[in-house]
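Why do we bother with holo predictions? Because pocket geometry can differ from the apo form. Keep that in mind while you read this record for 5-amino-5-deoxy-1-O-phosphono-D-mannitol.
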Amino acid sequence: MCGIVGYISKERNPNSLRLGLEALKRLEYRGYDSAGFAFWDAEKKEIVCQKSVGKIAKLEEKVNGNGNKPVLANPIILHTRWATTGEVTEINAHPHSDCAGKIWLAHNGIIENFHVLKQKLEEEGHKLSSDTDTEVIAHMIEKFFSGNLEDAVRKALPYLKGTYGLVVISKDDPEKLVAAKLGSPLLVGLGENEYLVASDPAAVIAHTKKVIYLDDGEMVSISPNSFSITKGYNVQQKKPENIEWDMEDAQKGGHPHFMLKEILDQPESINNSIRGRVLAEEGKARLGGIRYIEDKLREVEKIKIVACGTAYYAGLIGKYMLEEYGGVPVEVDLASEFRYRKPILDKKTMVIAVSQSGETADTLGAIKEAKEKGAMILGIVNAVGSAIARESGVGIYNHAGPEIGVASTKAFTSQVTILALLSLYLGRQRGLSLVMGQRIAKEILSLPGLVRETLNLNDRVRELAGKYKDYDNFLYLGRKYNLPVALEGALKLKEISYIHAEGYGAGEMKHGPIALIDENFPSIVICPSDSVYDKVVSCIEQIRCRKGKVVVIATEGNENIKKIADDVIYIPKTLEMLTPIVSVVPLQLFAYHMAALRGCEIDKPRNLAKSVTVE
Ligand code: M6R
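The structure, written out:
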């Protein structure tokens, strides 16, 4: 995800640009595709901007290419961009400026009404040059500027719909750095000889541990020797807090592992995946990446989903959704099998590749094969600009933010969410009723809140992990939408805790795995109150008869289930098709706590790589 840094030194400091770039580099772990900065050159009396696609090191090369002459850069704004609106190009990289190149701004978040604002600004004569939503903010500030940057920002902000964390400088009010926040994180670091503004504590921690976290609606105006925080026109008095973490912890948001951070990030990552994509009133999904092939999509006769590991399980859930609501027959293939089994493809087949990293060799191989056979390819990819995203041509980005823990968690819930949006999109093209469309849309919008509620189970799940940590085998069972969740729960447990776990369809129990059951082989059964509830209850009874221990994931309010379970974890109710997004959360937490209690290395489990770029 994007990263923001603002830097303002209290004294004339020829090293300030280097310090700003070092702070920006501490946000590299978040992932990005381009970077840039702009600063006030106090000697030349001009604003200098540099941007480049790729790593920050490339930006540094540009700086060094200028003879590495010391500059009195103060203030500076810096940015790493993870593309959301507009392709990965230098023009789209931040900072962005107004018409006259006097106001420069870097932004995190999404301005949802930027199309409307852009049109109005253009009608008023503004010239915008990028495809980004961010650029409109610089022009809005220009519109209100009459000598005081802080005032102009304050007047422009109410016109923006969406989220932002932003930093701004201006040639006509040069000794000032203004920052504002709504929905995207932003903090002010109070250093001895400098102030910093950043989207993440990791950027400031080498300079100071004294920070003020801005709240939504707040703005800070910083000059070399003072700062003031306001909300509207009211000055806010805020006490600095001390960051207790060291550098590595800071990147994990204070959590002991990236995996836990990413599990807890899910309300936000799901929100990012659905932002601007749900038309609640119309009961439709708006998916910008596929709007160009809208007509072609109407003609699709079958879908084949190809993916690996966790992404494959997301694809299996997608099959249930796309068939039930999208109205298209779907097959799901392990990408590693797909091209070796001579699949039958034609122009009316759409192959969907699902991948977090966008670099998985098997998935890439599968879509190359499908392309050669004339199929339409659609990528559901998290990493912008990755090989699969490029090879797919059309696609839907997850926008879940970088996933660093090897065990995939937030990517999974995001992939399932995107597949739900796609089912809604195709369904509404093919006769899904307005009422049903509205119901699905409304429930998709409530997912971040439902997942947040489910995360409150963390302590309860940790307790449960304490009870079960010494068992060496587990069976995970689920049916229909929750069969793939059982597979995913088992995969999570085995990959990070090295405990043997099998995922099975609850209906398959009696066809074999039941032979494993005894008092030493616990089962985790996903049994929400849905259309197959009674069938899954029978399966639990069969385990109980054989003295097997059972942990049940059930829907809130189901008291009866306690009679046949050793332990129950309650999850909130949602539409059956969306249950996996909620039911997987306790399984992720269970795997995490089991691994932590057994002392395993969680973020980099043995033998595994984050991107599997070999066949
Ligand atoms: O980057 P991708 O989504 O293509 O990766 C696919 C699998 O390699 C990945 O999901 C893997 O199974 C994870 N370790 C699961 O946690």
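The two ends are 29 Å apart (CA to CA).
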